[in-house]
Amino acid sequence: MAWRRHLLVAIALLATLGLVVGKVRVREPLMRRVLYDEPNAHLKQLAKISDTEGSLARTFFSPAHRRAAQQLIRWMQDCGMETWADAVGNVHGRIRSARDGAQELLLGSHYDTVLDGGAYDGALGILVGLAAVKGMLLTELMQRDMLDRLQEQEGGEVVISASLASSLMKQGAVHLVAFADEEGVRFQSTFLGSRAVAGTLLRHDMLAAKDHSGATLEQVLREEGGLADPRVAVAAAALNPALIAEYVEVHIEQGPVLESKGLPLGVVVGIAGQTRLWVHVNGTQGHAGTVPMAGRRDALTAAAEIVLAIESMCNKTQLEGGVRQPQDDSLVCTVGELRVWPGASNVIPGYAGLSVDLRSKNNTQRHELVRNVSAAVKKVCKRRGVKCGVERKHDAESVMSDPGVIEGMSVAAAAAEPMLMAALTDSEAAGVLKGLRSLPKLVSGAGHDAMAIAETIPRMGMMFVRCRGGVSHSPLEHVEPVDVAASSAALSAYLWGRLVGGMLGSSAPDPRVRGEL
Ligand SMILES: *[C@@H]1O[C@H](CO)[C@@H](O)[C@H](O)[C@H]1NC(C)=O
Ligand SMILES: *[C@@H]1O[C@H](CO)[C@@H](O)[C@H](O)[C@H]1NC(C)=O
Ligand SMILES: *[C@@H]1O[C@H](CO)[C@@H](O)[C@H](O)[C@H]1NC(C)=O
Ligand SMILES: *[C@@H]1O[C@H](CO)[C@@H](O)[C@H](O)[C@H]1NC(C)=O
Ligand SMILES: [Zn+2]
Fold first, then answer.
1. Which stretch is the leader sequence (predicted)?
2. Fewest C-beta atoms under 10 Å: which of 247, 453, 469, 499?
């Protein structure tokens, strides 16, 4: 039954947007302004708000970080939102629903950056979120034939008041959060902002985290944030999960898959779990000229064998007859750091330490791989007569996107086609439209705010946007303006289905029922 309803709403949405297009032909400038011009201009403008000259850096509570928060509040208010900043500097904007007791759809991403970062990581999700809210409202105004009247009243401008917006959103409220810190540059602890919203910041003991000057987050919130009692204020920043139907985040892919497929958007099916190990290899230090090869216990050559054994294990899980297995394609392992002691050309290394980063969407597989890595370390070390130890430094379980959100995003992307045609030139549209008919499903190898939110609001989903060369955390980070518009349109259609069409919190179709259709 749920699936049939879902289908009906999807068809209604397609029909609505189809109708809109007929009329929109004369209104292209407005749709283009909302979906293309504004989000791209906002991204450029936000990227200029930096603590460093000639590069982009915005870290927790820095002057640029505060200026960015002020700017985001102005943009949210222009969109008819009520706004506020919470205890840790997260910026919130909300439009209530006309219906009493309606749940909220939470949208978010982060406005902090790494040092020498790019203009899209985090910022894209916030500004596309804002564009999508406007796109949804515009679509509904057209659907109700209210746009002309509104434009006449305002002398050609369209000003949507909070009360008008609420009356359009009959089925749910929208709540956009710009998280103050995701990258963790200042306190070396990720998800500070989203953990405050999820209500898990205290549980993760993050108030005790220290910045490079030795100040704890608690002190910083008291001295720089002006909070009398940070513990109480942080607890009050948590949103009540019962009021939130789902969390949705748009983010740049930060990887090469979409670009290699020639597609603008993808839907995230899950965020990979992660384990970080540190492997100690203790050999016997000695003179490079006098100790014969046969008698050596070289820590570095043992470490080298371990590095290759780990790579070979991950290669194996991905290659079967040379073909990459789709179900395993999120399993990756990396040795990114190697420390050698004493590190001199004429000394046989006495110690080697190496980091191991293992990620998979399949937690069972990851835990199995950790056991296999430990066994391989033991085997190599035993054969070489060196002493080894494996230290487990960090573990995060994977989280899965909600099937209803995944399905809803796929339907919405296809439904966004007419809306996007109204906003783009033919040549711009040619590059993206085909890609919206069937969104590829991706696993996120990187952590995102959605991971922290999912601890208390499990119904979540993410949309990925193609970025040039898969490059991120770099000034070279780039998203084509037309892809920004495509994600804005797809999210508009998604919001329309949820907040106007009544799909908020809907479950996935039952695959057995789908089989019948
Ligand atoms: C892992 O696979 C790559 C090719 O994808 C290959 O070049 C490499 O040698 C393999 N590693 C090991 C240790 O076999
Ligand atoms: C997860 O990994 C385990 C162990 O490798 C495997 O048995 C299981 O089928 C995998 N589960 C999924 C859903 O792929
Ligand atoms: C772990 O080792 C076992 C035994 O060799 C193998 O069957 C399994 O596929 C390995 N799992 C992973 C994730 O490497
Ligand atoms: C290896 O050496 C390190 C540093 O010297 C030491 O902390 C560690 O306990 C040693 N581990 C083993 C297994 O001997
Ligand atoms: Zn990010």
1. 1-22
2. 469
